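Record format v2
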Amino acid sequence: MVTPATRNRRAGRPARLGPLLRRLTGDEKHAPSAHSTLDVLWVLYDRILRVSPETADSPDRDRFLLSKGHGPAAYYAVLAAKGFFPEDWLDDLAGPESRLGHHPDRTLVPGVEIGTGSLGHGLGLGVGTALGLRAQGLDLPRVYVLLGDAELDEGSNHEAIAYAGATGLATISAIVIDNQSASHGWPGGIASRFTVHGWTAHTVDGRNHDAIETALTSRRPDRPHVVVAVVEPKE
Amino acid sequence: MRDTFTETATALLDDDPRTALVLADISASSFAPAAGRHPDRVLNVGIREQLMVGVAGGLALTGLRPIVHSYATFAVDRVYEQLKLDLDHQGVGAVVVSVGASYDGSSMGRTHMSPGDVALLDTLTDWTVHVPGHPDEVPALLRAAANHDDRVYLRLSTATNDLPRPAAGRLMVVHRGTVGAPLVLAVGPMLDPVLHAVTGLDVTVAYTHTPRPFDAAGLRELVGTPSPAAPAVVLVEPYLAGTSSAEVSGALAGVPHRLLALGVGRTDLRRYGSPADHARWHGLDAPGLRRSISAFLD
């Protein structure tokens, strides 16, 4: 449902993302809003993450871990738009010679921190990454892990949520894209699954760039942080 | 072996700032002194084995060398997909150190047994597997493993041979029969039972504590130029029977041979008892091995 108001809230998403997505999907019918992660990803790469193609291997870079590895078109489009790899890589998605598949592989795609697809692996890897940076005295980088609301069904996430909260692992942020696709839902809300373990949490409109940015940056220095980004229910 | 591991790993944590230890409660008290000195590199995540391996993958992604430790059934069986995806698929490594493999924990029952750990790792990519047969073989294996970034499994047992053989990274002849005599390959703590079992038989016995990568060249050399009769090879492993059969077949591709693969059976016996009891029930004590090997060679 695109109203003038929601179009306005998405101001800041560059016009060239639409054509990049269409190169990936060959899909002329669906608007970019069909991609639940698109606005969060754009805000992360455009306003939050301290990483660029030039610093993609720097030990001091921020880490973005896409745990929800399926449907990575928006991720690829944003990475291409930011220059991590040539835009013509988008034209042969999952082809025999393509580096871009329906789930990303970190060893094939510059800028991709982890290879994912099987759900429930990113948050554990993210906790380990945050711990590894801390052990090496790298205090500047922050670790961002993007998940989906249905992905939270995987119990492995809850191992990571409980441990990060209990130990006050303050350098990790989770972003949960909530398109209400979990089969049995999350009564009481997704944020409460984190806050009960000591995380700070914000729930925001997942299409509102300023709100997403504010939620990502409004955190305490001693707690892990989660932003629940609510988007339209999955069709 | 478990104590030797604790001492060596503690020293590594003191000496090498690249090493980190990830635990899921098991052995946490043994590593309390190390955790006190290195709180950022000795990480006990609680009873959360999926997270244990995920954290190891994340540590490795930042350039550290994680050592992961638990019971074999929790460090391999339970976290098979984490080993596959959080290590292999990310292109990073770790040193996974298990205790209680096969039926070492027999008194605790099937839930604490893991005879299939090495077979599971065989489905993954480029895992080095060490099965030491003596505590004195452990320090050098662990130190070498901590010094690179590959994937290593170190399988510690309560069963040990009388003598350490640290140099047995490749097949090492321990007892030599006549030319063309049947060849018995013993892995890790199976060596002493094998040596007792073959007393008086004309066989060559070779030993290794490192079944992966399998010493294919060493096996071909030991088999030599086949005599008119197809050479007989007996494989004796302390984990699932037949785990290394494909390795032997690959090494001897094109060489006519006969193979007997002995190890732990697949059946859940639903019995407690001691490891010695289970060795007997699986035919892996000296009399059982003698029976199987004699029947095969007759």
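Residues 205 and 233 of chain B are 10 Å apart (CA to CA).
DSSP finds twelve helices and eleven strands in chain B.
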